[in-house]
Amino acid sequence: MRHLLLITALVACKGGTDTDTDTDTDTSGGNWDGSVVLINELLAVNDTIISDEAGDFDDWFELYNPEDAEVDLTGWTITDDYAGKVPAPLPAGAVLQPGGHLLIWADDDTEQGVLHLGFKLSGSGETLTLISPDGTVVDEVEFPALDPDVSYGRSPDGSDSWTTMTPTPEAANE
Ligand SMILES: [Ca+2]
Ligand SMILES: [Ca+2]
Ligand SMILES: [Ca+2]
Fold this sequence. Notes:
By secondary structure, this protein is mainly beta. Helices cover 7% and strands 28% of the residues.
């Protein structure tokens, strides 16, 4: 009887219409607050532009926060094969400041740290899909075949206009 009373009290405290048996307090099935992050630039063939901590000239992409508030990347995922693969997790606890950029290595070197994901970008072109914590596709870019050391990015940052460009890793696109 005491157990039943406790459950009743807990449900009453939640105050909403969430009548399922999980422990979160919303009914959307996730913890996404609607914040937007964008894929801003990518380099699929990196010969000389920038190397990672291991000295590898690996593939990378850049995220950009177009919002007025910071965005926490916990729970966000990204994939180069939305239909076929489990998406790779972006670094939990990483925070993008308003207007901020973050470089993520797509190098299939996950042992090199949380900024290294388990896939690479094809120089022949493919599609990158960015997914929010509740499973919503927030951004997707289909990029073309790219020459070495030529990136593909939004011009300017956050715009809907994509073009090949001189790489600007973790800095504003030119
Ligand atoms: Ca590549
Ligand atoms: Ca690497
Ligand atoms: Ca850039």
